[in-house]
Amino acid sequence: NIRSLVKVPNAKEKSPISSFVIYLDASGGSGTRLTLxxxxxxxxxxxxxxxxxxxxxxxxxxxxxxxxxxxxxxxFWWDDAAGRQGTLRVLSTASIEDKPSFHYRGLLIDTGRxxxxxxxxxxxxxxxxxxxxxxxxxxxxxxxxxxFESSVFPQMARFGAFSADEIYTAEDIKDFVDYAKIRGIxxxxxxxxPAHAGAGWQxxxxxxxxxxxxxxxxxxxxxxxxxxxxxxxxxxxxxxYKILExxxxxxxxxxxxxxxxxxxxxxxxLECW
Length: 273
Known about the structure:
There is one protein chain. Helix 2 runs parallel beside helix 4 (about 170-180). The strands form 4 sheets. Strands 2-4-3-7 form a 4-stranded mixed β-sheet, with helices on one face. A 3-stranded antiparallel β-sheet has the order 1-6-5, with no helix packed on it. It folds into 2 domains: about 20-100, Chitobiase, domain 2 (2-Layer Sandwich), CATH 3.30.379.10; about 105-255, TIM Barrel (Alpha-Beta Barrel), CATH 3.20.20. By secondary structure, the protein is α/β, with parallel strands linked by helices. The model has no long low-confidence stretch (mean pLDDT about 90). The radius of gyration is 25 Å and the shape is elongated. The protein has helices spanning about 60-75, 120-130, 155-160, 170-180, 240-255; strands at about 1-5, 20-25, 40-50, 50-60, 75-80, 85-90, 95-100, 105-110, 135-140, 185-190, 215, 230-235. Belongs to the glycosyl hydrolase 20 family. Its EC number is 3.2.1.52.
């Protein structure tokens, strides 16, 4: 049930496979937006006919087909012991029916405390895709930094990013979202609030918006927050809500995620209020 796909000079055995054809069928699937109701199941059949190898993947969505292709790729391996240079191997017969046990299979990355360039985040997406995870939970901001360059409120990154070079533009996020979507992954972006909101929220008085956040960088920090740097949104300033809503609208338009939202919500310290 193992076949060699690469003809290797001076190898003891020759490849018995002359062609490898992959058939994909997602008839009946609707749309390409991943939701909690998306059917990600698939069926994979791998058969050998004469000197031809055929893989057939059927699914009810693009995401099911993608998972089937991911599984198919894991039926290949490189055999170092074949000949002088090794050869590529593949199973010649397989039948797999698979579906996820959980509709939400996520990994959280925190760029509020540590900035990661988009190219590094894409490497995370590649690893998630190989494991069939489907949700990249992007904890994009925290008390330490606000790296998203909002087109509505650019002051957030201007006052909140670690540096002018450590920001994510709308174009960066759209590119990342598209990259993830092809690999079967939704991007769920979280602006942590009402706590964990310090850097990026300091500009209110200067622009006539009042105090948007309280206890920013307050000391001793142990009295006002779970960890330094401190900061919580001002619950009696209506501008804080309006700014947060506008930023979320902007991010939701970029990610196209409509059935889930995450606002953080952890570690509110009443001493700050």
